[in-house]
Amino acid sequence: NDPSPEDAALDARRRSDLAAIAAALDTYRARNGSYPSTQNDFATLCAQAFDAGCLLTTVTKELPAKDGTHPYWYQSDGTTYTLFSRLQTAVVDSGCPAQTPPALANLPVVCLSGGGH
Question: Do residues 90 and 108 lie in contact, with contact meaning Cβ atoms separated by under 8 Å?
Answer without folding.
Answer: yes
